[in-house]
Write a structure and sequence with these properties.
about 230 residues, mainly beta, about 0% helix, extended
Length: about 230
């Protein structure tokens, strides 16, 4: 549109072969690959001589030809047959913002809104597609927010960074709700001559949270520390 504002759009198709378990004829296989279609459009900005960069995108992703259980033993051989018929649709918005608050201080913000639903299936209510409850895809948060900031202290060649990730409430297989959570990470980077030292701590405050839920809750990672050392060649 102008030097610091642009628009974009893209369309893509994809396919993914079915897993080996879905190729066995006793279960009704082999089945055609799962297919996908992605449509996305948005706007990017590069304002104030590049000190503020942002992008906003809206998208729709469809996955079709999903394998579902029929619940029927048509051949009376003890094997429940499946059929390749189904569709899952994701629609949402992605927002990214990066700002140079000062020559030494940068801030990054990322937000995603996503609705993932069963849009076609055998039963009409999402009962035939795995990884779902009713018509709702499980473990698919509606809101995700990430915040990251870094400050460089040039006098000591050291940078300090802090990040936070928020995941909103999700639904489990039994229609129970998985609580939202926020986890923090911190990093210290120090450079000396040809050496670079990085100390990173993930799950900084050792939060207790569920990363996902199937039949049981799966706990998130505990506090973990990493030390990385690099030498410039």
């Amino acid at each position: 549109i102008r030097d610091d504002v642009s628009v974009f759009a893209q369309w893509a198709e994809s396919f993914e072969p079915q897993g080996p378990g879905n190729q066995d004829p006793v279960f009704g296989g082999p089945f055609d690959p799962t297919e996908g279609e992605n449509i996305e459009t948005g706007i990017r900005t590069d304002l104030f001589d590049g000190r503020i960069q942002s992008s906003v995108a809206v998208y729709q992703i469809k996955r079709t030809n999903l394998v579902q259980s029929t619940g029927i033993d048509a051949n009376n051989d003890g094997f429940i047959e499946s059929v390749a018929f189904g569709e899952v649709t994701s629609e949402g918005v992605d927002l990214d913002l990066t700002a140079d608050i000062s020559p030494d201080w940068v801030l990054t913000l990322a937000y995603a809104y996503n609705e993932t639903e069963i849009t076609e299936d055998i039963t009409g209510s999402g009962g035939g597609i795995g990884n779902q409850n009713g018509g709702t895809f499980v473990n698919a948060p509606r809101h995700q927010l990430g915040l990251w900031t870094r400050y460089q202290v040039q006098s000591i060649n050291t940078a300090f960074a802090l990040g936070a990730d928020y995941v909103s409430e999700r639904i489990g297989f039994r229609a129970d709700k998985v609580k939202p959570y926020t986890v923090f990470d911190a990093t210290v980077i120090h450079e000396r001559d040809d050496w670079r030292f990085l100390k990173r701590v993930e799950t900084l405050f050792d939060e207790t949270y569920a990363s996902s839920r199937l039949e049981l809750l799966f706990p998130g990672d505990v506090r973990t520390a990493f030390l990385e050392v690099y030498r410039k060649l």
